[in-house]
Amino acid sequence: MGKGTNGFSEAGLRRMHEVLAGHVDSGKIPGLVALVSRGEETHVETLGTMRHDGGAPMRRDTIFRMASTTKPVAVAATMVLLDECRLRLDDPIDRWLPELADRRVLKRADGPLDDTVPARRPITVRDLLGSTCGLGLDMTARTSPMMGAFFEQGVYGQEDGWLLPAPEPDEWMRRLGTLPLMYQPGERWLYNVSDDVLGVLVARVTGQPFETFLRERIFSPLGMKDTGFHVPAHKIDRLPPLYAPDPQTGEFLVEDEAEGGHHSKPPAFPSGGGGLDSTVDDYHAYFRMLLNHGMHGTQRILSRPSVELMTTNRLPSEQLAAREAVARNLVHLSYGLGQHGGWGFGMAARTYRGDFAPIGQFGWDGGAGTTTYADPHNQLVGILLTQTGMSTPDSARVIHDFWTTLYQAIDD
């Protein structure tokens, strides 16, 4: 692994191994799989076991619940449709999603649901891609009437420890359409709902199930053979249980079993906001494609401008502070992750340097203990997958230390 102008130092990789192994040896994290790549060099760590009480070891092909790390991948389906002019950025979505036509907007985001004004304009494709459609999970206002309505109407249910749509897509859209917007279209960045609406949009524009289109246009061309919205029976032994440690005692509580759990069968709603299962190698193929401006080998998956739109900041300056405030209050980012300013399409896009990573880094984190970013400046990808939800600081510490040791291992 020696010295080289586009790789990692042996000493740096040793430190990464020792730091990650320390987290597993502490008993706070049952196991993990990490992949780092730079230039032509790829390094993988598999540490610990699938279950907290031992048993099968973690493997390179272990399948993890990607949770919100789904967003940067699922958004690619919409970008394909933009490239092919089957959608345009500023098209109103009313034609395909009539449930969201003629919106009413709350006078105050935390106010009563019947105190509304008309929307000033329709929601556009751009609003959905940039998470500015006016609907979202605002963790800074969890007790607001709107957040209550999401649950009461069954738009979102608490599944796997994070928020996923409950009914099938048409019924989900019908329920969503009974609610007002929280902000005017384009006015403010809000989390998650836009990503789920995009999946319905893709299905309606293409006439195919969302997962089918993703598989044909993104997963299969990239060789992402273990990525989907559930884990089939012949692979279920590669999916560990999801744990939610008790914040007081640290005891490992099973939030979602593998066999018979939420990911053992196709979901009613394939969630572009948080529903994918995948492996380090599948996600590596996808993020390398983004670093290569949309190319996978000799095959073009996305246009270069599509990738640039996704991976660089799209928010105006006056919206950046609101985005950061929401990110700080997300359950899975409440320990200081996700504070990088900007947002592209489906992912964070770093606009300032607050830690080891430079401006331009893009990607996202997930509530089940996952993190994936790429860095064009250093031509690197980092992926860390665990099966411990971020209900305690331990997952966040592992993720922080992973990124620190990845960057200290750069060898030039």
TrEMBL record:
<dbReference type="InterPro" id="IPR050789">
    <property type="entry name" value="Diverse_Enzym_Activities"/>
</dbReference>
<dbReference type="Pfam" id="PF00144">
    <property type="entry name" value="Beta-lactamase"/>
</dbReference>
<dbReference type="InterPro" id="IPR001466">
    <property type="entry name" value="Beta-lactam-related"/>
</dbReference>
<protein>
    <submittedName>
        <fullName>CubicO group peptidase, beta-lactamase class C family</fullName>
    </submittedName>
</protein>
<feature type="domain" description="Beta-lactamase-related">
    <location>
        <begin position="19"/>
        <end position="394"/>
    </location>
</feature>
<dbReference type="InterPro" id="IPR012338">
    <property type="entry name" value="Beta-lactam/transpept-like"/>
</dbReference>
